[in-house]
Every structure is written in C-alpha cells, then in structure tokens.
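Explain this fold:

***
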Amino acid sequence: MLLGPAIVVDQFGYLPGHQKIAVIRDPQTGFDSSDAQMPSTSYEVVNAVTNAVVYSGSPMAWNNGAEDSSTGDKVWHFEFSSVTANGEYFIRDQQRREVSPRFRIGADVYAPVLKAAVRAFFYQRAGQEKTVANAGAGWADAASHLGPGQDRNARLYSAKNDVSTERDVSGGWYDAGDFNKYTSWTAGYAVDLLQSYLGNQPVWTDDYNIPESGNGVPDIIDEAKWGLDWLGRMQQPDGSVLSIVGLSHASPPSAATGPSYYGPASTSATLNAASAYALGAKVLGGFAAHSAYAPTLRARAENAWNWAVANPNVTFRNNDSANGSEGLGAGQQETDDRGRFTARLIAAVYLYDLTGKAVYRDFVENNYAQANLIRWNNYVSPYEGGMQLALLYYAGLPGAMPATVTAIRNAYGNGMESEWFWGKVTGKADPYMAFIPDYIWGSNSVKSVEGSLYLDLRRFGIGSRSEAEVMRAAAGYVHYLHGVNPFGKVYLTNMYSLGATNSTNQIFHAWFTDGSAKWDDAKASTYGPAPGILVGGPNATQYDWDSRCPGISPLCGSQRPSPPYGQPPQKSYKDFNDGWPLNSWPISENSNGYQVNYIRMLSRMR
C-alpha cells in the first residue's frame, strides 16, 4: 500500500462482548486509488504477545463488492466477534504480509481515552496555571489572560477607554482553536458535561489529574463547575448575562498580552446560561462539597429566566461592522427568533427539574409541540441534539403530563426507526459503519451526536431494539473516530502514548500553531498538540483555499491541496494546520462542542 492503510481497526480496541469488525480497503477513487487491490481470501487474528493465531476467517464484501460513493472505496468486513479474551492483537493478511495496527480487547479499553478527552477541557482553560504535574512538561504554562487590561478588568467593547465598565470575566474555556469565550456555547458545554455524568454515573472517577482531582467529586463535575463559575462572573445584578469575551492570542496562551473586551447582555446568552445554572444546581446539589454553591446557581437560573422573559428580543452580534464590533470574537454567537425559543424551552425543562415550579412546567407543556421533533413529525436529527435531549429528559420527570411524555417518546422512537437511522444501520449504508448524511464542517462532531442518538434509546428506555443492537449501532461511530475510516486515522490529537498507531498530528489552534517548534506536529515537533482533542474532520462542502489563490500569495502553491479538495466526502480531510491562504480550519480546527459530544458518546460504551 502506497498511501492508505489496507486494514483499519479501532486502534484502542474493542469491548469483549461487542461486535468486532476490521475493514479491508480497496480504494477506487480519490488520492489513494493507486492502492486498489482485491483482498485475500483469509485473514487472521494474531495475539501480539505470543504471535499465536487465535482466529481466522474470510472477509465478506460490503454491498456485493460495489464502490461506495462517500469514500470511493470497495470494502470487505472481517468479523472476529468470537475473540473475547483480554489481550493485545492485530489482524494479519498472511498472503500479502500486511497487518493492522495493534489493538486491545478488554473491559477498560476506552477508560484512558475518555480521561484524555475530558482532560482536553483542562488544556482549554483560560486563567488556569497548567503545572507540569497536571499538564505534563510539554504543555505546562502560566495562567493566561490575567495581565493588565485582560480578563480580571476587561472593558465593554464599545467603551474601551471607560474604566467604569471594567469587570472580572476571568476563567472559562478557550472556545476552540481561537481563545474567545462565548456565553451561549459555554453554557451548552457545561450542560453536556453534566448530561455526560448523568448518562453513566458509575464511569466517572476523581483521578483525571486536573487540579481538583482527589477532592471527592468526579472530575467531570469539577470541569463543569469551571465553566459554571465563569458563567456566574458573566451574570449582571439584574439577571442578564453578558454575551462574549474576546481574548488576545499567542503561543503559548500565557504569552498573550492584548486586552480583553466583552459584549453586552443578550436574551440568547441569558437563556442558555439559565439552563446551565439550573442543571448545575440540580447535579452539584447532590454533592456535599457543593451544598452551599447549588443555591447560588439556583438563584442565578431563576434571575436569568426572569430577565429573559422580560427582555425577549435583546440581541448582540459580535464581530460585526454594523455595530462596530469587528474583531470581537470570531464565530457568530447570536441566534434568531427560533434559536431564542429553543433556548427558552430547554431552560424551562431544566428549571422545572430543579424547582418543580408550575411556571416552567407550563411553558414546556404549552410549547413542546413547537420543537422540530414534534412539529415535523418524528424529526430526529444530529443537528438538534440539545433540544431532543432536553425533551427526553423532561419526559422522565415527575409531574410531566402523560400525553406529553407519550408524544415525546413516540416521536423520538418513531424517528429513530426511520430510513435515516435504523434504516441506515440495517441497510448497511456506510461501509465504515458510521453513516451520516453529509460531511460538513465538524463532521466528527456529527458522528458523535449520531452515536448518542442510538445510546439515548437505551438511556431513556425507548423502542424495542435490544441493548446489543443499540451498542452495535453506536459502536460504529466510536470505531470510526478511533481509526475505522478511509485514512485509518484516530481523529484525536497525539494519542500515541495511549496506543494509537496513526493519530491526528496537527490541529488548527492558536497554541499549537503552524510552524511552532514545540507544538506544531505530534510527529515532527518537540511535543505536538496536547493529547485527546477531537479534530473537526472531513469537510466535503466547505473547504477551499482562499478564492484569490494562487496569485494572492506564494503560500498558495500552484494548486489546491488534494486531499482534502476534490475527494470523495469521507476522504475530504488532511492532517494539516496551515492558516491563510490554505485555510485548514474548516477541517482541522477543534471545538469544545465537538469534544463534549464525543465525551458523551464514549462515556456510555460499556
């Protein structure tokens, strides 16, 4: 094989009782089409320690040997589910002398991967010293953005010379590859971390080697609290919540010296923060260590709700010339009327769970049918994950009206039985066993949400599918992100120390920037990016170099990089972090949203 791997597996491994399938690749279209070859008639599972063959069998052609349009590959599946003994293995094609990466079978194969994924939030913390003990020598750094004019005394973006606007907005997380902090999105990350905890409480431990480890509280709760603390600093006395903080950038983050500026309160930011405060109060209130903190969060949640109800249409667009906010943040945090309605409905769910008050229940009961899940007739979508999860959660709460519970559960169950979900699983629509309809910006995040859609059937007891069926469907998305894809690539950064053979080496990030001698590349730099960060993934529709290339800059080169350009959708990826004009960010940038979606899915694989 010249370009692509012949045999792809989950490079971390497989749970003993789960289905295990290695994919044999025969590329037909795309950058690796010259690697086309028919598979052998027999493959072996080999114990990597003893070199003993523990199983052999023949691969089965996917879709009768047809080429898949999303990958440009023909593939064969070699199933070895009968191999259940703990150990380290690899797949061997004895005839061609090709082998797969090594992998483990064991009940704990994903535990260190999950720790690394959660720890990625620690590396994204703003204002947190990252000691050698916690971060490792390669990623130790002083607390960032705490200098003069930065987060502890940030000023309103439109009053940069007015000292009276200074306020402490320190803490929180860098949102993605940029260091900005967006309230609505941060609130969503906190909610999803808390939901990850609720979805499988026994898996969470207190030994993730973050500063709070050993305090008797699961570290995922400590990480959620880090986000909640920042959201608290963003709330004003009247209950409203500021929308954004724009930070300066440097590598490492502590080298950033530019001022921090914040945007004004908005309805959407306030409603999203209300959800986080409310679920935070509910979950943290279950820990003695946070018994005094939970009432504060409850008060914040109700105050935020009251302000938003009284001020339903307050908006603020950052990085927008129309209001002079150019350069304040990067992504656009503001939403539309529909987005504000969705945020209010989700907030009402979590506030009702927390308080039991009729005002919140009544809002859900009177408005749940306007959610797309209901109004569009069983519309389940990986792009509506937050709303769907909130409704499923509500349907399990005491006091929810029986008719509402039935409507929500039936809509979700019926939607999952449609051609776009179980139909794709039973029809074997994707040769790599992780179907999504489109490969767009953040496709790896979509994969993660899709896996969770199946797992939520089990969590909430919906439908008639067996646990084995649900786990097989969801595991396909886990395996895809762990290497069962056309690149044989683990789509997490720098996971070689945890067993990956081919991990993501570069990521578009202001810290792990292109050209950095220390952090550019996990293979070529001193350290590479921090471990465990999920990269955006293949993007077939939104990647291109600068439209003025090649003439605008010699950095363009003579033609578009291919891959990612001009490839089948699943091959529309490149392990690179070149900035302008090659514009790697639609493919190789991270996001805390991607990260938490992956965490929520992986944490339920057992």
Summary: The chain has a mean pLDDT of 97. The chain is about 30% helix and 10% strand. The radius of gyration is 24 Å.
